[in-house]
Design goal:
eight-stranded mixed beta sheet
Length: 627
């Protein structure tokens, strides 16, 4: 202790030099600690962002031609034309697997499934398709063309009996030469309506006499190579019903078709996914868990039989988390996302038939019991290609192990609803550069990274500042120690010689010379480290100001329950704005490390100077003169 006091007294004989040394060490400590803390925060946040953000890509084949389709309109008594998009030959997703492409999840055209569950009660509106489509037997009230023709409904094949006994008008609306039906005979047909009515002279019929159109029932089945094999199936517009008719092949067709009329309201979309990251509304939090948990990564990879159910479907059927539900899957749809068929408000727009090319009702290709691990709610409709309707039952893609190649309901070119992939965060630019080099013009790729790119810019700014402060502070501290090591030690050679001549050991001489410097170093580093620690919050805030960005595919993983934020370290500002937050407790360890390394490095530098003094013989030092 006495040596430390004596050492400090010696240094205080040159107060200006001593105060300057303390001030400069404090300043360099501030820079070093501030840089260390920002470097730590940068590394910590990047790790968290990697877990919180997902970069999803979608591929869509671009329509490159349009063709005019002609169709007869009985009301206008003329042919009208409409434009239909053409794609030419469908492009396979394998074109996305080019050399250099770095995928976390490779591109794949994935279907969604249709489950037929008559034992499950639907909470959704069933009016719509079922309320406008009828399989009926009719008797014409007069002989004539169906352009239109008044008939009486004598029998309804199916569950919806609302037309039974009514007189309606039927029209082969898109046929310029409609067939003639005979009065008093019985015919079976599939009709849809009512639509805008007209008589043979183009005059409108009243609402009660609404016109019903004959509907062509043609199988939409595709094979696994993307070819529609249902197009070759015979079209059935109507048949005359005679004795024994339903025992014939034609009659059996109508019986099978009648069975499907009661199936539509018991169809449910099943969405097989590899992660909830691929479902946009869950990332935007318009869909969120209300009970239970998310499907785990291991369950996705292992294909466990677990599922997440819509909350309203579960409530309607008294199903709870932990219960099991059987999912008989009868069809796979590759044409577009499930929300384009099953609407958020309960309506349905079915573009497929439930009968295959052989006019047989699809049998289930996979029937498993799934444990309900979570329930979710959908707050608003999302009819986008990336959305869902809120009616989907979500399961791991790998849980369906049986082949569905004989149960493909419909197919189409790549689009955002079916073809998606995942790449590492922050690699969009490099990916697109390599993709553009492939020269494929008919495929458009869109990425959703939830604003990761913008946040990455903010982090890079802070990273640059951290490097500048850390390197600048370290270089400054080194220069300070080199300068003042020379002033306080090298120029004190005679003092060292005198002390050694008086019998002090090398260790005592070192303690006498360095204890004062060490004390000042400790004070300066402690003051600077504290200052740097306090300044970190301000610096972090300034270099990571809130940036507005698209919140698509931004989410914290885990149980995304109502009201939960993306992360405890992230605050949601106004819509589309994410703000980095900071707690001083986060940088206590990095402050200690930064200050400690600076202190030890400074000790090392002055120790080197002192060892150089001690290597010289006292007699030589005494013959020298202090400059």
């Amino acid at each position: 202790m006495s040596m430390c006091r004596n050492s400090l007294k010696q240094m205080l004989r040159t107060p200006v030099k001593t105060i300057l040394f303390l001030a400069l060490i404090t300043a360099s400590a501030i820079l070093v600690v501030l840089g260390t803390n920002l470097f730590f925060l940068n590394h910590r946040d990047m790790e968290k962002f990697e877990k919180m953000f997902t970069t999803i890509g979608v591929a869509e084949q671009i329509s490159k031609e349009s063709e005019l389709i002609g169709s007869w309109d009985a009301e206008l008594d003329t042919e009208y034309y409409y434009s239909k998009s053409g794609y030419g030959e469908w492009i396979d997703p394998s074109v996305l697997e080019f050399q250099g492409a770095d995928y976390l999840v490779k591109p794949e055209k994935m279907p969604w499934f249709v489950a037929y569950m008559p034992e499950i009660e639907s909470p959704y509106l069933t009016e719509g398709f079922e309320d406008q489509s009828f399989l009926v037997e009719v008797t014409p009230l007069e002989t004539g063309e169906m352009a239109p023709l008044p008939v009486k409904v004598t029998k309804v094949l199916g569950e919806n009996q609302k037309l039974l006994g009514k007189t309606i008008w039927v029209c082969d609306h898109n046929n310029p030469k409609p067939d003639i039906l005979d009065a008093g005979e019985t015919y079976v047909m599939y009709i849809q309506g009512p639509g805008t009515g007209h008589d043979k002279n183009g005059r409108y019929l009243n609402a009660e006499q609404g016109e019903y159109y004959l509907s062509k029932q043609q199988s939409t089945q595709y094979n696994s190579k993307g070819k529609c094999i249902g197009e070759s199936a015979e079209e059935h517009l109507f048949d005359e019903v005679t004795t024994g008719f339903y025992e014939t092949d034609r009659g059996k067709y109508w019986i099978e078709l009648a069975k499907t009329s009661g199936m539509w309201k018991n169809l449910y979309p099943v969405y097989p996914v590899k992660s909830l990251d691929f479902i946009l509304p869950f990332q935007e939090k318009t869909a969120y868990l209300t009970d239970g948990r998310e499907i785990t990564k291991n369950e996705y990879e292992k294909g466990k039989d677990v599922c997440i159910l819509p909350e309203d479907l579960a409530v309607k059927n008294n199903l709870k988390v932990g219960n099991k539900i059987e999912l008989p899957l009868i069809g796979a749809d590759y044409k577009e996302g499930p929300n384009q068929t099953f609407r958020h408000n309960g309506g349905s727009g079915f573009d497929f038939t439930l009968m295959n090319a052989e006019w047989e009702i699809y049998e289930p290709f996979d029937t498993n019991e799934y444990e309900i691990v979570g329930l979710y709610r959908m707050e608003k409709a999302d009819d986008s290609d990336m959305g869902i309707s809120g009616r989907e039952i979500i399961i791991p893609y790998a849980s369906v192990t049986n082949s569905w190649e004989n149960n493909i309901l419909q197919d189409g070119p790549m689009n955002a609803g079916t073809t998606r992939f995942q790449i590492p965060n922050g690699t969009i630019d490099s990916f697109l550069k390599q993709w553009n080099e492939q020269g494929i013009k008919d495929v458009e790729i869109t990425f959703y990274d939830g604003g990761y790119s913008e946040l990455q810019d903010s982090i890079q700014n802070r990273k640059f500042m951290a490097y500048v402060l850390l390197i600048g502070g370290s270089v400054t501290a080194m220069l300070i120690m080199l300068l003042f090591g020379h002033l306080f030690i090298s120029k004190q050679e005679q003092r060292t010689a005198i002390e050694r001549s008086l019998g002090m050991s090398r260790r005592q001489c070192m303690s006498s010379m360095l204890s004062g410097i060490a004390a000042l170093l400790c004070v300066g580093v402690i003051l600077g480290s504290t200052g740097g620690w306090k300044l970190t919050e301000y610096a972090a805030t300034q270099t990571s100001k809130a940036e507005k960005f698209d919140t698509t595919y931004t989410a914290g993983k885990g149980n995304m329950l109502k009201g939960q934020t993306a992360s405890q370290e992230m605050e949601k500002g106004t819509e589309g704005e994410m703000v980095l937050t900071y707690d001083t407790k986060d940088t206590i360890a990095s402050t200690v490390i930064g200050g400690g390394v600076l202190l030890l490095s400074s000790f090392g530098i002055v120790s080197i100077y002192m060892r150089q003094n001690l290597k010289k013989e006292p007699i030589r030092l005494l013959t020298g003169s202090e400059e």
